[in-house]
Amino acid sequence: MDYILNIETATKNCSVALAKEGKTILCKEIAEEGYSHAERLHVFIEEIIQEAGITFNDLVAVAVSQGPGSYTGLRIGVSAAKGLCFALNIPLIAIDTLKTLASQVIVSSGLIIPMIDARRMEVYSAIFTPDFENKRGTLAEIITENSFEDFQETLYFVGDCAEKCKAVLIKDNFVFLEAIKYPSAKEMSLLSFEKFKTNDTVDVAYFEPFYLKDFMITTSKK
């Protein structure tokens, strides 16, 4: 059996899922105001392996959310995934975080716009078709009342930005699906299996998360 462990830590949701041939069989996740990834991630991984009745040696690959998203969250997830891949000598698969988020939406027409909060009125966003084909690449953009004004079809917005964005994105064709807030590892299962079948993997030694923006460290004025 092709067991793949999926790890999603790009947002406040610390999420781990075990998939068998592209189908999620177990998922553990928690979204908290304060990031708990460092404390929860390895516990979730151990618990899922035990509850599934398998061993780490049964894994054929590990998939990890590649970003964009939280710098610290991404580093924690990628470090854990790399450690497992090195120890087990199995491939590492990188999954687009925004595609994982978009994959929770089921619509027959229009466009899906997953957004991850990047502070103030800035977001990380992309645009997908209902079949999850990428129509516009990932951007870090400032949301204004003119954002997405050229689109006439229905736009479905998902992510943790609804509260701040719906006040300015008020066109009739804009729909906020507020129940879909964070990407989840369970939506990675099919995506990672499809990549595994085509040997679409990344170099374990050199892979780095897709931060999109440089990580800024401020220094004291003293």
Task: Describe what you observe in this structure.
This protein has 222 residues and is an alpha/beta fold. The chain contains five helices and ten strands. The chain has helices at 37-52, 71-88, 97-102, 162-165, 188-197; strands at residues 3-8, 13-20, 23-31, 59-65, 92-95, 111-117, 122-128, 134-142, 155-159, 174-176. The strands form two sheets. The chain has a five-stranded mixed beta sheet, sandwiched between helices. A five-stranded mixed beta sheet has the order 8-7-6-9-10. Helix 1 runs parallel beside helix 2. The N and C termini lie far apart (59 Å).
Question: Descriptors for this entry?
Answer:
single chain; 222 residues; alpha/beta; five-stranded mixed β-sheet; 5 helices; globular; disordered C terminus
Which outline best applies? globular
Q: Over the alpha carbons, how many angstroms does the gyration radius reach?
A: 18 Å
Q: Which percent range describes the beta-strand content?
A: 25-35%
The string of secondary-structure elements, in order, is EEEHEHEHEEEEHEH
Tally of alpha and pi helices:
5
The chain-level mean pLDDT equals 93
- The strands making up the biggest β-sheet line up spatially as 3-2-1-4-5
Number of beta-strand segments: 10
Classify the secondary structure makeup into a structural class. alpha/beta
Largest pleated sheet: 5 strands, mixed
Identify low-pLDDT runs. Answer: 215-222
Distance between the termini: 59 Å
Q: Helix fraction?
A: 10-25%
